[in-house]
Write a structure and sequence with these properties.
Layout (H helix, E strand, L loop, with lengths): L39 H13 L11 E6 L14 H10 L2 E6 L5 H10 L6 E3 L8 H4 L3 E2 L16 H5 L2 E2 L2 E2 L2 E6 L4 E5 H6 L5 H6 L5 H11 L7 E3 L5 H5 L7 E4 L2 E4 L4 H15 L18 H4 L2 E6 L8 H8 L3 E5 L14 E8 L5 H16 L1 H15 L3 H16 L11 H8 L14 H21 L5
Length: about 475
């Protein structure tokens, strides 16, 4: 008999690769130990690209911007070199980022204290999906419309994404990049080959990577009596659900919308319930227990590990030890009834903090970020650096880029973590939330229990868009 569990960790809410989980700290002063930097030759190439391009304009009088987070934009201990966008900011504007270290759990409390004490923290990460619209409603963040020109060539690729998140008539979440790495299906090619299964990447190429194909492979592989398990990971359900193209909480015309009774959501939840009934979800099955065993991918005992691509965002000695030398990944499978191929969407996004001392500097840094994404020369350097840091294959880089293109073409933005902790607690609950079907609770039971409660929270925010 399966049990219910509530585990306080998150895969799908993990930050994207350019914002790795380096989240251990307690607000102490940031580590001053020198970290890994790019070569002098690479810096010279970037400097020439940035200084000769007319899309980066103006100069900065105040060259320091203050960043509060549980991770450092500067190079860190994961093996990450100084990011391309930061190097461009340094070379073009002489800029630097001063890290105000916090922890993931305490970051909003620490930010509130910094605002109240006028520390001048300038910007904050929005890509975890819990900053918007909550931060705008509470008055912690301010609009960036005076500092970023969304109509410029730098921003035209992501203008629609930014415009889709207008709140109370203004832009609060500066989306510099739309990515498809929020939740991917990690697997081991050796396991597929040894069990006579098709490679999901090949199915994807043939447009045959669907819910049905995903389930067929589970049916062929899973035999818990022989230690062959199906799906292991925490908090993967909303990632797979995004394949419907329907967010649990969406946004239309600047208002939050409750989609919990949408037909596509119902289809997904009923499918997930069927996977649970067939013992395809490993956690809680037999002797498996409630400890996630990602290393079973490398051992050939586990078929799929749906997770944020950050799980492979470290040095090869680390990711290969867990997932094996033959690890690969694909986007979530396609929902056959959808009008397009949708995948869970992440954003690299930043919020301007109330009382920041240098919003102009943040605007220039984010311009540099955009430049790093649209300049062919800068993107080539970025890919080479990524391979150098993490020893990914060309095929892995290509798949990551493909997923980014898929996400930008058909983004699925879900705001259920950005309203309040109350809404998050309701929807993340394994008792009657959006992942309860993967623990054996029928969807009709859950949606009847939570729909009105969630709607009340949404109505309150929609009716009072700025109360901070």
């Amino acid at each position: 008999m399966k049990k219910y569990a509530r585990i306080a960790l998150s895969c799908l809410l993990a930050v994207v690769l350019s914002a790795p989980l380096a989240a251990c700290g307690s607000g102490e002063e940031a580590d001053k130990t020198p970290k890994k930097d790019m070569s002098a030759t690479t810096r010279e190439e970037l400097a020439e690209l940035a200084k000769s391009d007319e899309r980066l304009t103006g100069e900065l009088e105040n060259k320091t911007i203050k960043w509060m987070s549980d991770w450092d934009i500067n190079s860190d201990d994961t093996g990450k070199t100084t990011p391309i966008e930061l190097a461009i900011f340094q070379e073009r504007y002489g800029g630097e980022i001063e890290w105000h270290q916090t922890t993931y759990g305490a970051r909003y409390d620490n930010l509130a204290n910094a605002i109240n004490s006028d520390e001048g923290v300038d910007f904050f990460y929005g890509g975890n999906w819990d900053a918007f619209p909550k931060g705008a409603v509470r008055g912690m963040f301010v609009p960036y419309d005076d500092y970023i020109d969304l109509d410029s060539e730098l921003w035209e690729d992501v203008k629609d994404a930014n415009d889709s998140m207008i709140w109370d008539g203004k832009h609060y979440m500066a989306v510099v990049e739309v990515t498809g790495d929020n939740c991917v299906i990690i697997y081991n090619r050796k396991t597929m080959d040894e069990n006579g299964l098709d490679d999901p990447a090949e199915l994807l190429e043939k447009d045959e990577w669907t819910w049905d194909a995903f389930e067929d492979m589970l049916e062929e592989f899973v035999d818990t009596s022989e230690e062959r398990y199906g799906i292991d990971s925490w908090y993967f359900e909303s990632g797979l659900s995004a394949s419907t193209g329907v967010p649990y909480i969406g946004m239309e015309d600047g208002k939050l919308v409750n989609n919990l009774r949408n037909e596509a959501i119902e289809d997904y939840q009923n499918w997930m319930y069927g996977l649970w009934q067939a013992d395809y979800i490993a956690l809680g099955v037999g002797d498996y227990g409630w400890t996630s065993r990602d290393y079973y991918i490398g051992e050939g005992k586990l078929l799929f590990y749906p997770c944020g691509l950050w799980a492979l965002g470290n040095e090869k000695s680390q990711w290969s030890k867990t997932f094996g030398e033959d690890v690969f990944f694909v986007p979530v499978p396609k929902y056959e009834k959808a009008d397009a191929y949708y995948i869970p969407t992440s954003v690299n996004a930043y919020c301007f903090v109330k009382g920041g001392h240098n919003p102009e500097g943040v605007g220039k840094f984010l311009d540099c970020f955009r430049f790093s994404k649209i300049s062919d020369g800068a993107q080539e350097i970025s890919d080479v650096q990524f391979v150098s840091d993490y020893e990914w294959t060309d095929e892995m880089i290509e798949m990551k880029n493909t997923m980014n293109e898929m996400a930008l073409e058909n983004p699925v933005f879900d705001f259920y973590n950005g309203i309040s902790s109350d809404v998050t607690d309701v929807l993340d609950s394994s008792v009657n939330g959006i992942r309860a079907t993967s623990r054996g609770v029928p969807w009709n039971e859950s949606v009847n229990a939570i729909y009105d409660q969630v709607q009340n929270y949404i109505d309150e925010v929609n009716e009072n868009p700025t109360v901070g």
